Amino acid sequence: MKTDKTNLNIIISIILFMIISIFSIYTTRLFLKEAFNNLYLKQLIFYIIGSFIIIFTTFKGFNLLKKYHLIIYIGINILLLSLLLFGISINGSKCWLFIGPFSFQPSELMKISLIITLSVIISKFKHKKNKSLKDEFILILKLLILTLIPSILTFLEPDTGVVIIYFLIFITMFMFLNLNKKWYLISFFIILFFTSSFIFLYFFERDLFLNIVGDSIFYRLDRILNWANTSGYQLENSLIAIGASGLTGFGFNKSPVYFPEPQTDFIFATFTSNFGLLGASFLIFIILIFDTTILRLVTKKVKLCDKYIILGIFIMLFYGQVQNISMTIGLLPITGIPLPFISYGGTSLLSYLFVVGMILNINKERFKYRN
């Protein structure tokens, strides 16, 4: 694989993410039960496994994913359905599928599958000649149905944060389809209608509202209201930890402020409390370098299908980064979205490293495509 600035930026960023992640998770031992004191070692193992995944995906796996995209998409949807039927409820959610001593989140795999499936379908459509309004309508319907199926299954787990990512992937690709302007106008009014209906039913037809969405929606709305009021134990302690950390932080492994889920949802607050504003700024700088490197690939001479895959990957990562960091400082609601590459989690980390392999593969292939 030809070494260039794109590869170098991505590889260095991943190495720095790994160091920051492992050190941050190690410091959470102060607040977690003894049984969880080895999470930093597990994260290191996930990174080692992920490095082999990156190599496999770069040179072979990505092409197989594109070839069998529909079979993989159907298979992951079956896993999502099996969660609802046979899954074990943890903290009110059925997000984890257990196979012996191992567990994983099918929804994390679905994000990648959805990106590839939508991109392949769009690419095939773009290569057709003499496309009519009917053809455009069929395309939109296909993309929407393919997005709705996993969205409904994931919403029922419930995992609202991942559902948002599914729709962000769909919306991003839809916006770059360059279809007839009528479809964008129609989409605007459809969104306006459903938003208005949701608000009306919530405030004026509560019984009907509950019959449609279920009573778990109130828990999700409470999280938004708590954010709007800057209330909630988790958020308040996160703000204290970040605000009191100063320029250089309390020092490695010396954070005095406890908040729930310091190794996952609130890993940014954990890192900032240890290393302060300078540490947080350094992490954000690396994230920006990594994201802009990915986005620049869209402007390169790559295959059309790969351009849409890059857009999907970018919006998935960018939303996760903005959402996670913003919720720890009270700018956005707490949705349980992990910070990509930093938060503890086997399935999420391995899926993100899989994505890195996809990006490196696209960058490798573009030299062939260019020549």
Describe, in plain words, how this protein is organized in 3D.
With 371 residues, this protein is mainly α. Helix content is 72%, strand content 2%. The protein contains 13 helices and 2 strands. A two-stranded antiparallel sheet has the order 1-2. The protein is globular.
Determine the N-to-C terminus distance. Answer: 15 Å
Question: Regarding quaternary structure, how should these chains be classified?
Answer: single chain
Number of domains: 1
Secondary structure class reads mainly alpha
Please estimate the helix content. Answer: over 70%
**N-to-C series of helices and strands:** HHHEEHHHHHHHHHH
Secondary structure tally: strands: 2
User: What gyration radius follows from the Cα positions, in whole Å?
Assistant: 21 Å
> What's the total helix number?
13
Extract low-pLDDT stretches. none
Instruction: Please outline the major beta sheet.
Output: 2 strands, antiparallel
The general outline is globular
Strand order in the sheet with the most strands? 1-2
Strand content bin = under 5%
Mean pLDDT: 86
Features:
mainly alpha, 72% helix, 371 residues, 2 strands
In short, what is this structure?
The protein is mostly helical.
